Hints:
Number of strands: 67
Structural class: alpha/beta
Shape: globular
Amino acid sequence: MAMEDEDNNAAVVATNTQADIKKGGDVGDNGACIDRQPDMVVHQAGLKQTAGRGSRSGPGAHSATGIRVLKRNMKRNGSRSCMTRKTRFGSRERDWLKGDTQRGCVCLYGGMVDPQPPATGPQTSSIPQTDLQLVLCSTSTTVEELCAQRDGPGLYIQLHGDLVRRLDPSERPLQMVYDYLTSMGYADPVRVQHEAANSDLSCLIRFYSERPVNADQQERTLLKGVFSVRKGKTQLHKWAERQVILCGTCLIVASVKDSLTGKMHILPLVGGKVEEVKRRQHCLMFSSAGSQAQTYFVNFDTLADYQRWHRQASKVVSQTVSLVDLSCYSLETVPEYLFYCQDITHLNLRHNFMSLQGPGGLLNLPRFSQLKSLNLSHNRLGVFPECVCEILSLTELNLSCNSLHTIPMQIGSLQSLQTLSLDGNHLNSLPEELGGLFQLNSLGLSFNNFSHIPAVLERLSAMDKLAMAGNRVEVLELCTLVRMNHLRNVDLRLNGLRLVKSESLEAVSQVTQLDLRDNCLDSLDLSPVCNLETLHCQRNQLGTLTLSGFTLRMLHASSNRLTTVNIYPVPNQLTHMDLSQNLLEYLPDWVCDCRKIEMLDVMHNVLSELPSRLLNSLSLRKLLAGNNRLQRVPDLLDHVPLEVLDLQHNKLSELPDSLFYKALNLKYLNVSANTLESIPSSSQAEESLSTLQELYLTGNNLDENCGAVLVGHQNLRILHIAYNQLLSFPASKLSKLELLEELNLSGNKLKTIPSTVSSCKRLHTLIAHTNHISVFPEILNLPEIKLVDLSGNELTEIQLPDSLPATLQELDLMGNSSLMLEHKTLNLFSHITTLKLDQKSTSTTDSLSSSTPWNHGYSEMCGQRNKLCVSVLAVDHLRDSVEACYGIFDGDRNEEVPRLLQCTMGDVLCEELQHSSIDSVYMCNTFLTSHRKLGMAGQKLGASALLCYIHRETSDPGGCFSLTVANVGNCQAVLCRDGQPVPLSKIYSLENCTEEMERVKLSKAIITEDNKVSGVTCCSRLLGCSYLSPWVLPKPRVHTEPLYSQDEFLILGNRALFERVSYQEAVNTVKAVRDPRAAAKKLSSLAQSYGCKDNIGAVVVSLHIGEDSCTCEPPVSTSEPRGPPPATVPMAVTTGPSDPSNLSSSSGVVTEFSSETSASEVGSEAGSTASDEHTSSGSASRPERRCSLHPTTTLCGIMVPGPAGSGTHPGLFQRQPSCAAFSSNHSDNGLDSDDEAPLEGVISNGSKLEVEVDIHCCAFQLRSGAPESPKDLDLEKRSSDYRNGKMRRQNSVVVSATNGCLLAVCGREITDLKKSPSTSSLFGKKLPNGSVVAPEDSHNLIEVALEAPKKKSGYFTAPAQQDPEDQLIVPPSLEQEVREQLRGQSPLVTGISAPTTPTSLKDPVWDHPHPPAFASNLVPGPVPILQQEVYDTAL
């Protein structure tokens, strides 16, 4: 029976029993087939026969049903319920799937959850693993139909590894998957069909054939067993076997063994005791509280039971109230034993799927006679459960986020109710009966659909707060608040308010706090609110603001358009005022009359002066006046209590002479980005009383004379004096700053750092990049030193102590071209977490690097955070063509997701470029695929991501370049065009994007007061954080910008950078520096000096687009090369210092060899050829230098620069090991984790992998000699056009020569590795700690090859092995030429074996489950838009 004949309701199931599969084995041939039901077919296979309803067995089974048994070999890859697939569906299944995009595959998992590793001891491997079924069905197939076919009780769904919900019979699983993928951002139905079958998707959405069993969850909800029990402390009672239950707050002991009939003994444990009985082994004594306490002794059989019961009972007895917390347990009903606990007063059932019916359903909750607090939020109820209105003792009820549309009138029966939370529903009205709850003092109505304030609230006299944020109230009538004379606090943020009306003269005297943030107000007059104490009106469009000042204490009005603020009378109670990011040209006079003002923020205005009375205020402690137009600061007339003064980004040429000795309490001063030439003295006398701790002087015109003044501030902890005119720093002065912890001297003209820096014993950070320092400072003896940045200097050598401080974590020595380090020095640096060094460069590599129309530099700084949560991706040569890729990833508080994105996103982009040539498609799919590949790490963690791709248009390979930018979150890209910034990205934060705010509100997310979704993130789009779906999505914004000769450079930065540095300042900074690396460093240093404390990431890409930047040179005539003629020489590779631009600035681990060639074979092959072939030397080895505007000829992805082999690029490397916990199903490489020895540096505990990631910047390029004849050139060109542009060379060997040492590696593998942006440098020396150092002349590549790990797993893996059925397809017209070419090949190279008969092109959609990661054919030309590939799926 052909699969094409099945209708849309057909379902095919292929099962696999994981526990019975042995290493190296396959599934047996025996199996059973279930009889065909109407429109349904089931396939089953396994090592053991599985019989279902009406099953048949034996040889006749196949003929009876007409369906063959499908065999599956699926092995666990080391993580929770993740499978790698080695087989594919049969032809009939594939044809059926291709017939309609509404057909697809659903993975059904069994009910056994993977065991968690125990706290101590080895893992338990005897527990059976999860079974998996592959179900082929259509989008119209319902759960009821699937269950009827499988004879199963039901199906369950789990989203993001979180809660598990039972599916309704009418729900359609495949349609749910399709809807989920569409909401993520996938648009192509064919791509959606492929993604639905991908194994990685199980970390986002997963179906179970039965409810998963979680032992840990069962332990926390219910413990029971039959144990020896004795009642009372005396010996009068005997030990007896009884069933014992620990549920909720009570210990329940049955009267008879193995039965719950008869009398039940209930022992309340809250406030009681649980103690160990030392006289008996594994025995606990349970005692209740009170004067008539009862005691039970329970003797457990095993230590595990004893510990489990002791742990859970200890939690209960420690409670002060009878609280039972069953939140987040995926419960449909509460445990029936819980109803024995009649002392329960607080019951938390939040985040479950509670149903009304059943023994433990909501209808039975009135049985709790003493219940006071009930939390049923996030339960998908849909309707208000009227049964809770029968619990008359309730004082607190939470029904938030349940999609409620109405509230029943029975709510009026809860007369004791004091708190009612109805946030996050669809309510637009309230019943009149609610007004009868006179004790109700807190009512939550936020994020509903109210268009006005309900009138029933006027009767709730005990309610003092109106919480209606996130509704649809567009007009606020103050007369409504007058009638509600019991309200004190009104929260109407995020309502779209456009008008506040005051039609009557009656004052609103009772309201003291008013929150109107994030609305659409253009003017605001709240003078009738006469007793207002606190007002929040940030992020509106206010031009004028009028308030009453009688009782005003705090005013927050930032991010508006205010030109004036009118407050009458003078607010003498005002202590805190924020007017930043407005249009104020002057401060109102009443500000100086405020007697109690302590904090004033007027940053980012257009102020030209500060009133003298303000600065001399006797109450002002914090003044933030940066980013204005101030030209002078008034003199201080008397001692003032000022503690914080920020005057950065003004036009100050001097500071008041009396500043430091009149403001003796000053602890923080920031005057960066001014024109200061000197700073005032710290004291009039010899002895200084200064308490200054942080001083920021960056970006001024200070010289070395300022050092004599700084010595007076002996309490300084942080000193930033970067980018001034310092020629030196007085040694005697530096020695007196003994408390100094952080010193930034970058961007000056220093030739040395005084040796007296060793006196600063507390110094942990020294940043002195971009100077002229030639002698390494004496800082490695400091006990607390953590970070040393001396990049961009003139260092020649380093004098090291015998041992380095254990605290040293980062050492940056890049940009010191004359610095030579010995192996002994490098080994001494082996423990440093981050070591940045330059790569040794050669003339050949210099000429190659100049052939690209762009180059980059980057900077990553931790700031004052303990870890670096920002990662950078930089690839100057993508896919061996004139393309580049740059990205930046900011994880905010986590470092795992940025590291994983850094290691995978370049590969994903290269793969997606093979599937589509439409920018919005391949960029969007790159983000969505990367989101999926995060696996378990992306369930709870996330990151902002920005990716830039420079390329030529596919339709015009020789035309202009274009820049395609995609981003989620708040990382940004800015292009400098004619000296002006051109923003290319969109900030996806709730504060900056109105449409995103509306989308999140419509999906009923709870947005906290700090504008964070569920209090987690302010971004509405991220990679990761899938548990916040559908509020937070991974779909990026994609924008393509043509590049012109006027485009000078591109800047990428994270949120922290552009919060402190404006677009225009960033452009001006880079234009002044020019060198990309130094410019990126400067941007980061400026952001730090401007007050940034977070991680900072910056990438600067210098662009040289245009004909005038052509760097081509004519070919150099060469002498006859030594060795065999080019026609018989295999592709020669000259491996020199590696090029960082060939892959990300931090990527992967050491490159892995093909499993087809062992390290010993590599060594033997290299040794056998070392004496036979050498690379050409002298002028013959010099390649013809070509620019990207006139690129060299490309053959099958191999660039041919000239008649001889060429070298690789100079570079640098960086090592930043980190531990990233992630699911191993991120990479479906077709290998089993049990087949080989464990990979060094990878620790698996059964549920996650910890991988030491070596982040560096080394790569190699593969160059080929010129073809012997035009005929050969044409052959290779034409051959590469078949099989979707992939040319498979399975047996060819590439020989690499460096200084006489040759390395033979499988040609196909080295080509794949070469193309991957996330594979690391193979040809580098690996230090003991895993760092990779560029090879020097004495390095033997064979030694390096032997050090490479043999195992492939997880993210860091070469492309999967080709399927044996995959063959190179050569048209008949070219067969003769291919055979002639093969005869002329070198003996080292086994030619391409063409098939004896022409093989027709197969549809690649379902035929090839494991395509190579990157296309081999990179000849410029249009990519077929309809090209289809399988995407690491189960198919």
